[in-house]
Amino acid sequence: MYRLLTRSAGSLLILMLLGGCWNRVEMNEIGIISATAVDWEKGKWIVSYQMVIPQAISSQGNSAATGDAPVNVFSTEAESIRKAIGDASREMSRKLYFAHNQIIVISETVAKKGISPLMEIYMRNTDARETVSMFIAKGKARKLIEQMLPVEKIPGTAVQRLVENEAASSSVYPDMTMYRILLELLGPTQATGIPELEISGSKQPLSSVSSLQNTYTRAKIKLGDLGVISGDKLAGWLTPDEAAGVMWLSDQVKRTTISFDCRGQGSKKDSSVIIGGASTKVKPEQRADGRWVMNVSVKANGTLLEYTCPNDLQQPGLLKQEEQRIAEEIKHGMETSWKAASRLKTDIVGFGKAISMKYPQQWKQIQKDWNEEFPETVLNLDVKFKLARIGFSNYTFKEAQSKTRK
Amino acid sequence: MFFNHTKSGGLNQPKGGSPRKKHKEEPFSASLKSNIDTFTKLLGHSSDLEIKPFASDLAPEITMSLVYLSEMVNETTLNESVLRPLMEEDQQAEERSNALIHLIKEQIIQVGSTYCTDSIEEAIDMLLNGYCLLLVQEANSGLMINVSSKEGRTVSEPTTQTVLRGPQQSFNEILSTNINLMRQIIKSPDLHIESMVVGSQTRTQIAMLYLNGVASAEAVKTVRDRLEAIEVSGILESGYIEALIQEKTYTPFPTLMNTERPDAVAGGILEGQIAIVVDGTPFVLLAPVTLFQFFQTPEDYYHRFDIATFLRLIRFVSFLISMLLPALYIAVTTFHQEMLPTTLLITLAAQREGIPFPGLVEALIMEMTFEVLREAGVRMPRAIGPAISIVGALVLGQAAVDAGIVSAGMVMVVSFTAISSFVIPQFNIAISARLIRFTFMLLAGVFGFMGIVAGFMAMLIHLAGLESFGVPYMTPLAPFNWSAMKDTFIRAPHKVLLKREAANKINRTSKAE
User: Which UniProt keywords apply (chain A) (predicted)?
Assistant: First the structure.
């Protein structure tokens, strides 16, 4: 017993010495990557990294005052993505550390070529996190991670927060993390949408710290269209308006603002309502002639944000009428995006998923040609909107003013 | 100071302990002179040995002698209560030798605690305890009279276990005072006190206190047996006893509690614990004890229950912090950077820029610095205190960071760990946490979280295996006892605790039957 103990203790000690502290990495040996961009040019992958320079960001010490750039962007290229990342060790003094990589931007060329090599890396590697948000850039992807953002210190983190904020407050684009993309591309319909990241304003990126000394920024990062991925390739783009309907159809709306016209069809949409809660149910049904009917029922409620019509909201029946109009608006949005998705022949609204869950047998037969069949589907929309609150005022401001005049 | 031991009845004739090996059991001889010679020889002609021959009117023709150690006795008591009555007695007694001694014992001496002995061995013991010995010509026994004077502090405020609210009394070095304090709190005939002598040279008196019927008879027997089995030349503090009677020697966790607070001891005794009071130290031992009792203070029961619960939870958290925080910090910063929020990672990374050591070494440097400062703080003369704290604050604080030897985050972690370790009311478990901390730090530095988890598992297994006088150390968590939970991590209101006490009482009586 004693011998066993000493032996195991001894071997453990030797093990500890041999292990050399195993996979220990000190924090001043790692280069923290906050954003990655992938481009494809002349038969080679170009991977760009946005590396954080901690001294410039930390409030500790004097370096914060010197105005060093908080990040450094550099690229490596090779025939494969992973090779390019490996090559980075030839030009960087630190080990690239991807666990805190917040966003990955791919160029349109990469998206058109197919994103499977990238997916492959994320499925295989431990240091690559699936919580990374993915974006497509219409031009060079590297340009986007060179861009500085006002207020924020680390652009990569800032962009991630931007899309999170967007998903929570206006629900036009989903926050497409690598995990969700993988899930949807491996799901029954094998289609998904990835938002576009674009530089608006001046086309030159804001890449120097001194440019932040102005009170305005010439170029801004913002979310643009929604790139539709079918299989692993970019099938086309949806405009923000079209993208919004996708969110409704696929039950992803958390909070969003909807503009409507209180006077009737065709006039200016100058009143708006904020959606507080919404749920969408999709019930697929096969008609006798073999075509699929999608019964989409939406239930939503919201609060009146602004109301420009001189109507008295206390009037009976009026709220019903307005609710009807808002419901129409939502319906219209869904139809628009449905048309757009049909045009691209890509089921990013997840109808295929609904069918596969309810009719797994039939789904097996139609699965192969689904993208062809998908535009043939009949959409049966039913929207129920409830105006939960009208805000603090019963009258419009104008009306209230005229009342005081009396 | 004179204590006439009436309150601590059993103390007068302590039994047990290892026999004195230097001289064998010797009876008194009938000759006064030879007896006196024996004593002088055995006590090595010590200068404080007084042998006072005198003649009493009681029996003028019989020579008597008083033998005592002058530094150990109270001269006033000796003169007033022993010598004067003996000298001034005018009745003429017929008795001689042993009968005379009994007469003196019963009628003359005005001291409460007296007894006859015929063993020189015992007589010497009692002489060394401050008794005086009356020898009578022709008698083959001697009369021991308690005139001892013991030097000691008065009962003062506790210094190591202070409370905001609660009695401000602490034990002192004198056994009889300590027992007196206990009797003052628990005025019950069920409070049994067994006393014995331990240590062949120091002949230290110890007393075992327990509440008869509440303390488990088994535990009482175990404690008694173990105390009686002690064979050691000297006991200078209760720490010796603790080390000699605990179950497992090789464990960082204490299996006996020590306290200088009478109310804490009383609380323990009322819950069935056994207290061991050792002469010469204010620290009283309590056994059996479980891990969770080290996080309780008497104050818990004086505050309102919600506040007491909060404070107790804080203590548990502090214990974990003081054990694990540096290890977690090392593991996170050297192995698991992905666990940190990005902003925090960058801040920490910026601090670590330019630090020449790996995280583990950095932490060890700071921890060792702190331990050295703490030890210096305890050992140094009081007057140097402020100097040390200033140097300490500077070394531990800004200077180490500015010099680029350690990062600011590490200083914070170490300081917080240090402060957390002072939250735990029992010093001896706080110190085990400090010791274990280094193990965890090494494990974290080599294996990261895996090391910490493995270490923690090993610690839990060890804890679960520990016993304190037959009681599993992790009670009431393992074995699990739901009703005891009311007073383990939380402190339920007294009303609820009373219900538990009643339930326990029923259990106990049904077991006894």
Answer: Germination, Lipoprotein, Membrane, Palmitate, Signal
Whether A161 and chain B come into contact, CB under 8 Å, resolves to: no
Q: How many CB atoms lie within 10 A of CB B462?
A: 15
pLDDT at A145 over 70: yes
Half-sphere exposure of residue B486: CA atoms within 13 angstroms, side-chain side:
15
pTM: 0.82
- Classify residue B397 by its DSSP letter: I
Residues of B in contact with A97 (CB under 8 A): 337
Whether residue B17 has pLDDT greater than 70: no
Go through the domains of chain A in sequence order and give each one's CATH number.
27-238 (no CATH), 250-405 (3.30.300.210)
Residues of A in contact with B402 (CB under 8 A): none
Of residues A170 and A295, more confidence is placed in: A295
| Interface touch B354/A99, C-beta < 8 Å | no
Tell me, what amino acid is at A345? K
* Whether pLDDT at A68 is above 60: yes
Q: What is the pLDDT of residues B126-154, one digit of tens each?
A: 888 888 888 888 888 888 888 888 777 88
Q: Is the pLDDT of residue B452 over 90?
A: yes
Degrees (nearest 5) of the Cα angle B33, B37, B41?
Answer: 175
Work out whether strand A133-137 and strand A103-107 pair parallel, antiparallel, or are unpaired: parallel
Chain B residue numbers with beta carbons less than 8 Å from the beta carbon of A99 are 337-338
Which residues lie across from A78 on neighbouring strands? A45
Range from A259-268, A391-400, B85-94, B317-326 that averages highest in pLDDT: B317-326
With a cut of 60, say whether residue B2 has pLDDT above it.
no
Asked if residue B352 lies in contact with residue A26, where contact means CB atoms within 8 angstroms, the answer is yes
Nearest to B350 among A16, A60, A102 (CB): A60
Task: Kindly list the residues from chain B whose CB atom is less than 8 angstroms away from the CB atom of residue A25.
Answer: 334-335, 337
Question: Directed axis angle between helix B359-379 and helix B408-421, to 10°?
Answer: 40
CB pairs under 8 A between A and B: 83
* Residue among B345, B355, B358 whose CB faces A100 most closely: B345
B342/A55 CB distance under 8 A: no
Tell me whether A236 touches chain B (CB under 8 Å).
Answer: no
Model confidence at B190, pLDDT cuts 50, 70, 90, reads: very high
pLDDT tens readout for residues B216-247: 999 999 999 999 999 999 999 999 999 999 98
**Cβ-based neighbours of B364, under 8 Å, separated by 6 or more:** B438, B441
**ipTM for the whole complex:** 0.79
Give B66's Cβ-side CA count (13 Å radius): 25
Interface of B with A (CB under 8 A): 333-335, 337-338, 342-343, 345-355, 358-360, 408, 445-448
pLDDT at residue B112, as a whole number? 81
> Measured between CA atoms, how close is B457 to chain A, in angstroms?
17
Query: B interface mutation test: which of A16, A17, A27 has the most B CBs within 10 A?
Result: A27
Instruction: Give chain A positions within 8 Å (CB) of B448.
Output: 22, 24
| pLDDT computed for residue A300 by the predictor | 92
Integer Cα distance of B395 and B413 in angstroms = 15
**C-alpha–C-alpha distance, residues A16 and A21, integer Å:** 7
| Backbone φ, ψ for residue B357 (5° rounding) | -100, 155
Least Cα distance to A72 among A100, A112, A105, A32 occurs for A32
Range in A9-18, B36-45, B412-421 with the lowest mean pLDDT: A9-18
A52 close contact with B: CB closer than 8 A: yes
Identity of the amino acid at B234: G
